[in-house]
Amino acid sequence: MIHPILLCGGSGTRLWPLSRKSYPKQFVPLTGEETLFQASAARLSGEGFAPPLVLTNSDFRFIVTEQLAGAGIDPGAVLIEPAGRNTAPAVLAAALWLEKQDPEALMLVAPSDHVVPDAAAFRAAVTAGEAAARAGQLVTFGIKPDRAETGYGYLELAEDPGDFTPRPIGLKRFVEKPDAQTAAQMLASGNFLWNAGIFLFAVKTILAAFRAHAPDLLAPVQAAVDQGQPDLGFFRLEPAAWQEAADISIDYAVMEKAENLSVVPFAGGWSDLGGWDAVWRESGPDGNGVVTSGPATAIDCADSLLRSEGEGLELVGIGLENIIAVAMPDAVLVAAADRAQDVKRAVAALKEKQAKQATEFPMDHRPWGWFESLAVGERFQVKRIHVHPGAALSLQSHHHRSEHWIVVEGTAKVTVDGSEKLVSENQSVYIPLGAVHRMENPGKVPMVLIEVQTGSYLGEDDIIRYEDVYARGQGAKG
Fold it and tell me: What's the distance, CA 261 to chain centroid?
């Protein structure tokens, strides 16, 4: 049995404005109906695979379980990282967790934001590496390059991959992201593959590698696992111990120092969607090199991506060449296609000017559903709130605002200062400032309401929680 380990904590700033810190690219349907996270979980499921073990942060924990449920996949453990510490501590925590169940188990470590169009071919590559992993090899997967890419690290093979039949081949060395000339030379040689950052190994093998090459990580990560606490269906790693772990990648901590390495070549197609240029490439440009998504129209355009992410937000491009244009209700990106990797500079600039668009997604996802702001003024805000069937917001009050709720779909069960009533479509209710209140959806269909807030302060941190079925603490999200 192979245990998939899905790493799910990145922020994906190079795909801003669609990917932001509060809702990164792995949770977004970028190239199809499924999100990247759902597609990754589906790719690593089925016969021979255990339920996925997911490592994520506190803000994403309910998104993870909701999206797995939407894909029809039962999760294994969901480990909550108290802070981002890169891939080495995350992989080590997963190994220590699995060691308690089966030290002989195989781990398949994969990012949750990659695209692999041929899932069956990838599973065949995993099967090809299984014997080597059971024999004590650290198996990585190398992607057949189709261009002289400077944005990826490379793997130099000890022998020619030939026809790219999946099989373990010796690894000569890791190569950092090259310049354009070096990348062209490596592409021509045929012995260099892209490093996909996907690994297959036995629990006991990777733990031995950490003991040999990164021993300083063992004590803090072991303590974080041993002293962690269950939280509903999740497991929170202990924060103080976790903070002591170095922020380092699995490549730097272990892989570049180890000698028991093998590479399985893979030619079935792969992308890390590391920029809008990659999204354009993976979306299948038409004969003019144009990709449109959502309510977008291209007139006499070439080699361009036009993407609208807003309902009723029409994006029109005329005479564009080599342009990326992505429109959202609160932010618009227009960039030369060859500057796609510079989008992270835009995010940095927005952070510096304290623009909320740098990190906050316009649709705020919560365990009970989501909300979005429709209009904001000096002393008012209008929101659309979507509550899943059977879900409930916390029992709460506010110091600085009152609220009016108008139900537009479904039925809401509303509690105000201990009094309960059902509010149906086209009915409304008033929540006075300071009132202890709760909203629930008792039905089997989504409930949608319009909320009008009025008051001197309308921030999300003006919430005092008294009860919460999702066991969140105080603060905006808890």
Answer: 28
For the purposes of burial, counting CB atoms within 10 Å of the CB of 259, is it exposed (0-12), middle (13-18) or buried (19 or more)? Answer: exposed
Tell whether 244 and 371 lie within a shared domain: no
Instruction: Confirm whether 477 is domain-assigned.
Output: no
Q: Count of CB atoms within 10 A of residue 206's CB?
A: 25
Nearest to 168 by CA among 119, 105, 106, 126: 126
Instruction: Looking at the structure, tell me whether residues 198 and 291 fall in a common domain.
Output: no
The alpha carbon of residue 372 and the mean position of all alpha carbons in its chain are separated, in whole angstroms, by: 20
Q: Are residues 187 and 131 in the same domain?
A: yes
Number of domains in the chain: 3
Together in a domain, 36 and 78: yes
- Contact by Cβ (8 Å): 305, 276: yes
Using one digit for the tens of pLDDT, what is the confidence trace for 307-355?
999 888 999 999 999 999 999 999 999 999 999 989 999 999 999 999 9
Task: Give the C-alpha separation, 152 to 156, whole Å.
Answer: 13
Nearest to 152 by CA among 258, 26, 270, 51: 270
Q: pLDDT tens digit string along 20-59? A: 988 899 998 888 889 999 999 999 998 899 999 999 998 8
pTM greater than 0.85? yes
